[in-house]
Structure formats: C-alpha cells, structure tokens
C-alpha cells in the first residue's frame, strides 16, 4: 500500500513539474513573439509611413518637427508623383527630408527674394492649385500652418484650407499638414481635427 502511494505521489509530482515547465515555455514563446512584433512596428515607424495616403485625402500630423510628415510625403511618392512644400525655410536653409525635385513656396514677411507674404493667402492658393493641375499625383506638404495662423485671422486660414482641401479632392491629389499642437488654441485645434484626417494620436 505504501509503495502504491509513493508511486502515485511521484506521478503527481511529475505531472505538476511537467505542467509547470509547459506553462513556463508557453509564456516564453508568447513573450518572444510579442517582442518580435513590437520590434517590427518600431522599424516600420522609423523607416517609412505607417500607412498609404489615399488619393484626394487631406491629413493632419501633430509633431514638434516635420520629420514624420516629410517621411509620409517621400514614402507615398516612391511610385512617382510631384511634391510642393509650403515652408518658412529659405532656399539655402531647407531641412533634410525635402525631395530635391520638389517645388517650394517660401513664406516670408518681406515678400522679397522670391518669397510670398503669409497674408497673401489667395496667391498661395492659386500657386498650389496651378501645381496640382499641372502634375500627376501631387502631394502638398504644408509645414508653415502656425505662421499662416499667426499672420491671419483663423477663419481666413480655415477657409483657405477648405478651398485647398476641395481642390485636392477633385484632382485626386494629397495634402499633408504638419502642426505643433501646442502652437494654437485648443478650440482652433479641434476645428482642424474635425476638418482633416488626423494621422496618429489626436492632441490632448
């Protein structure tokens, strides 16, 4: 009887040990799978756009710099197309990330040296419309929205964006707007979020 009990106890202990090892291995496999999946997401985020822009779409990217929105432009023009940038950077100080063959609208208060004043919203709109009509798959990168809002009433800038958004939709073009969320009022930011498709997290 004692021998039978000892054998049964040994079997139970063996089953518990085997079960414990099985649970340990399963947890390790799940953890390694999750870590591998997360590493792939990180690489995707750093090396290219997280999704493809849709023709006719207008997008808003909240960011401190313009690196993410510029990656979106580059990534979505790999199959061909044309980029036009609305920027505060003069020709000699353009930041890394712009496509070399892109067009530029340089905004400056002086209006000199080939620049355009930020208050000339009608002229900026016409230049963008001309570019969209002249090129297949045009991507508009608006990296100076804060500057436009600072020099114009917000309602004027919003109408400008709505008109441009209509042109982008009609022509099957694309628009990517880079914006520091902390640079404008919360109410204005929420209006932009309602008007445009936000890429990534909405500002808090």
Task: List descriptors.
204 residues; alpha/beta; Rossmann fold; 2 domains; six-stranded parallel β-sheet; 6 helices; 6 strands; 14% strand
Instruction: Give the CATH architecture of the largest domain.
Output: 3-Layer(aba) Sandwich
What's the CATH topology name of the largest domain?
A: Rossmann fold
Poorly predicted parts:
34-49
Tell me the count of domains. Answer: 2
Assembly state of the chains shown:
single chain
Give the averaged pLDDT, no decimals.
82
Could you tell me the radius of gyration in angstroms?
27 Å
Helix content: 40-55%
Number of strands: 6
**Structural class of the helix and strand makeup?**
alpha/beta
CATH superfamily of the largest domain: P-loop containing nucleotide triphosphate hydrolases
Largest sheet: 6 strands, parallel
Cross-sheet strand order for the largest sheet: 3-2-4-5-1-6
Q: Please indicate the percent range of residues in DSSP E strands (runs of 2 or more).
A: 5-15%
For the record, the CATH class of the largest domain is Alpha Beta
């Amino acid at each position: 009887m004692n021998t039978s009990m000892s054998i049964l106890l040994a079997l139970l202990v063996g089953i518990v040990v085997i079960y414990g090892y099985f649970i340990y291995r399963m947890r390790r496999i799940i953890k390694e799978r999750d870590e591998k999946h997360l590493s792939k997401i990180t690489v995707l985020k750093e090396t290219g756009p997280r999704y493809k822009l849709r023709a006719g779409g207008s997008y808003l990217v909240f960011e401190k710099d313009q690196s993410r929105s510029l990656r979106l432009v580059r990534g979505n023009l790999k199959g061909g197309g044309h980029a036009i940038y609305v920027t505060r950077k003069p020709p000699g100080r353009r930041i890394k990330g712009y496509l070399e063959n892109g067009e530029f609208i340089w905004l400056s208060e002086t209006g000199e040296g080939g620049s355009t004043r930020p208050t000339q919203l009608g002229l900026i709109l016409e230049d963008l419309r001309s570019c969209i009509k002249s090129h297949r798959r045009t991507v508009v990168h608006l990296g100076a929205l804060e500057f436009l809002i600072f020099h114009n009433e917000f309602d004027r800038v919003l109408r400008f964006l709505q008109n441009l958004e209509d042109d982008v939709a009609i022509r099957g073009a694309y628009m990517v707007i880079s914006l520091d969320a902390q640079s404008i009022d919360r109410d204005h930011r929420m209006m932009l979020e309602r008007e445009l498709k936000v890429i990534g997290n909405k500002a808090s």
